[in-house]
Amino acid sequence: MTDVSNIEPHENSEIVVTGKGGVGKSTVAAHLAGRSAAEGTPTLLIAMTGQEDDDFGITKNGCGTHPEGESVLEGLGLFRAIERNEPLRPIRGVRPNLDVVPGGQAVGRVQQILATRLMHEGLSVYQALARSLSLIAHRYGRVVIDGAPEDDTLEQLGLAAARRLWIPTRSDESSIKGIQRIATNFKIVRKRQINPYLELGGAFLYGSNPSATSIHAMVRDDVLGILGPNARMLSTVVGYREKPAMLARKRGLLFGELAALLPASPKSYDVAAGRAKESDVIPEASVKLAEDMQALTTEIFEAITKAQG
Ligand SMILES: Nc1ncnc2c1ncn2[C@@H]1O[C@H](COP(=O)(O)OP(=O)(O)O)[C@@H](O)[C@H]1O
Ligand SMILES: [Mg+2]
Prior knowledge:
By secondary structure, the protein is an alpha/beta fold. It is built from 11 helices and 8 strands. Helix content is 42%, strand content 13%. Strands 3-4-2-5-1-6-7-8 form an 8-stranded mixed β-sheet, sandwiched between helices. Strand 3 and strand 4 (98-101) form a beta hairpin. The longest helix is centred in the C-terminal third of the chain and has 23 residues, at 285-307. The structure holds adenosine-5'-diphosphate and magnesium ion.
């Protein structure tokens, strides 16, 4: 058995994860990474998810320069790096200063190899991503991980590779159960010394009606009931705005990039007059969505600066 020896994560490495799908993890991770890069920090986004969300338009719009050799799309880059104990091979320049290791179906195979290795190698298998990342992390000023939910092995693999954990939640019961699950994995990863550097950044409610303040208060109580009364619950609540959120992902654009297209966008009356298609119309609500996301990422970055003292 290999001993669990410390692999210190990058000092600016954040993981966005909770034990539940569809709560906004990938969206928030993409926007944290996108903003960090836009502000001039060389940034790496690692998507550990089985879905290929393509928030940056890597496949759709052909953004970024792929590494030479085998394809890293569909989670294959992540899978092979872990399987072979090799450095991650990101797609470079997806935006200025932004490299991405894309998620996708092959992430499911990571789970299988880890389960097999656990018997021979012990707990250090959970450090597989941390190891592959540590070989390239020095190139970056920030690393953001979009964590995989609903699987303890993958959750722990992600938690082993980051400095801080950020937990998004919706208001429903199963999202709260998802927090319970990630909180347990957080404790395991720290207690077993897989990553003693890991800290709880905070939790936040995502995709909710901003005026539903009594619901927000109840969620807050539930979250602090699980994470402890001293945990940080962020005050920004990004509103539920289905149309612009869906359109942004469909086009491979961040919310701010979508909102920037609004002034030149055709209007509903252009659609009615047959001059444009419905899908060409940028909704007015994209501005508010972009503002909400800007507020959330500001609050997260401020909390990080404070935590670093
Ligand atoms: N503010 C929002 N309002 C409405 N829908 C949203 C919002 N942000 C993201 N979405 C949509 O919600 C779904 C889940 O978001 P995603 O970030 O993929 O969650 P997760 O990574 O936790 O599974 C996606 O279809 C996404 O486009
Ligand atoms: Mg996701």
